[in-house]
Design a protein that fits this description.
The chain is of the alpha/beta class. The protein has a single domain, classed as Rossmann fold, CATH 3.40.50. It contains 14 helices and eight strands. Strands 1-2-4-3-5-6-7-8 form an eight-stranded mixed sheet, with helices on both faces.
């Protein structure tokens, strides 16, 4: 029986399809090129006002001297040592600016000095290009901040990536830790899946486009919608522009890329933190202040891991927010944090 002839199948682009693909390519290339036009670096009023209420502290970060922006309550222009204090540490796309509406209330309710810093490489702190910007480096930075303020007992408030290096600091300095509050973070390193935006920041060409998307004036309306979807439902547009200014000014792009490249997401590092917290810090009271709608750190999965695998978690409070809890509900956040700290501060 003769074999039927094989019909060759050809996929042919119609003229309309070719026109569509060509137009789309030209549009994307045009947008990409336009995004490189200089972006206005005028200091936003919200950042200017915030800058006036803080100060710079020079520390030895293990690689030399660097200036760190500090916002504290009560506000002072001098270093006043505090035997016991609250230290709030931010994540990779935020700064101490996130805590601006909460610090005064936390201080008033607890009677303790409330200190927030901009991590080197982010915000208003120095963005030097000869720093490693890994978790071990940031652990050293926290140690120097605590030493500079003469703090013997510190209540840690850890958000996003600071949950990891803040935990490393706690493991290495457990005798100084009064309590730990975790906001959405990812201690289950082995199971953590970075959101698409973060994954793209690892890709050589794509990361340039993503950074422009996040920070340029041209893309601001679009990036504002993306930011609201991921980080904060209630953030006004002007506040969003303050965040993007803090991200890009000075050498912001280069240092952000370094931070992203140096994220230690090895399962071995996660096991080191889990084992160290359970060995050295099991006696330290811990709480979770978590967001119901956080897609940045796979909220419920990560919260469950900490509650079930880290000893000492005694309280878990859910907020009807996205990633930046203190941005959306600053007073409720302050009340929740202060209540826990009052239960565990020195009498």
């Amino acid at each position: 029986m003769p074999t039927p002839p094989q019909t060759k199948s050809y996929y042919r682009y119609s003229p309309g399809h070719v026109l569509y693909l060509t137009g789309t390519t030209v549009f994307l290339l045009t947008v990409f090129m336009l995004s490189w036009f200089p972006t206005s670096d005028v200091l936003p009023k919200e950042v200017d006002d915030y800058l006036e209420t803080g100060r710079f502290l020079t520390i030895n970060d293990g690689k030399g001297y660097t200036r760190v922006f500090v916002k504290e309550e009560p506000h002072t222009d001098d270093i006043i040592t505090s035997n016991e204090a609250i230290l709030l540490l931010h994540g990779v796309l935020s700064t101490s600016f996130t805590w601006r509406h909460s610090l005064a209330s936390i201080h008033q309710q607890t009677g303790l000095r409330a200190i927030a810093i901009d991590l080197p490489g982010l915000g208003l702190s120095d963005k030097k290009l000869n720093r490693p910007y890994d978790f071990h480096y940031y652990t050293t930075v926290v140690e120097e901040i605590v030493k500079s303020f003469g703090i013997n007992r510190v209540h840690l408030v850890l958000d996003d990536i600071s949950g990891l290096f803040g935990s490393e600091f706690a493991v290495k300095n457990s005798g100084q830790i009064a309590s730990i509050t975790y906001l959405p973070t990812f201690l289950d390193v082995a199971e953590y899946q970075q959101p698409l935006l973060m994954r793209l920041l690892h890709v050589p060409i794509a990361k340039e486009f993503v950074f422009q998307l996040m920070t340029s004036n041209l893309f601001a309306p679009l990036s504002y919608l993306i930011f609201k979807n991921q980080f904060s439902d209630t953030m006004p547009y002007d506040t969003f522009r303050a965040y993007t200014y803090l991200l890009r000014h000075q050498n912001g792009k280069q240092t952000l890329f370094e931070i992203i490249n140096n994220l230690d997401l090895r399962p071995e590092y996660g096991n080191y933190l889990k084992d160290g917290l359970n060995r050295n810090c099991a006696h330290i009271p811990k709480q979770l202040i978590w967001s119901e709608h956080d897609s940045v750190v796979e909220s419920k999965k990560q919260a469950s891991f900490i509650a079930n695998h880290i000893s000492g978690v005694s309280r878990h409070t859910w907020f009807d927010t996205k990633h930046l809890i203190a941005e959306d509900q600053p007073q409720e956040f302050s009340d929740c944090l202060s209540s826990f700290i009052n239960d565990h501060k020195s009498k």
